[in-house]
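Figure 2 data, in text form.
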Amino acid sequence: MNLPVKQQQMSLKQIHRALNFDNALQSKNTAAVYKSALSKFYNYLASIGVPFEQVNKQVLIDYMEYLKAVEKLKNGSINNTIKAIKRMYNMFMDKGKLEINPANDIKYLKEPVKTAKGKWLDDKAVELIENHLLSSESEKAVRDYALFMFMVATGVRANELCNIEKRDIIYQDGRPVEI
């Protein structure tokens, strides 16, 4: 099974269709990131002489260490690579071409908590914006304050915030989680 060459020749649309075997991969942008990550993974396997089918947990751990030390990737990028590898092996399992996914037991690397506070805004700027929003008498002031504080606390991107739906909220016992 000469998967690396075949994968590199596939179009982005074909990659997205193949990796979306379970209808969970919605974004073509994610497919593009995964294609790049998998291409680099195949090149790494070729450089160490390990066939795709013989990859095991230790090979993946070594690859993660390589990405960190040699490629100087951050934990988030390494985690995205592992997600791509897990999805690819799951796809081959789903198609009956492999029996196990060597990436299943791989733990993601911890990422520093991302928040707007400290990254884009210092304490003083957050306080000024917060005070401004609290002093507003507009009908949308409460909403704007809640959205701003949510962004500061979570580091969510504006487009992600705009796309949050009720079903995205985590509930406990059928009731909204109180923060």
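Caption note: The CA atoms of residues 96 and 105 lie 20 Å apart.
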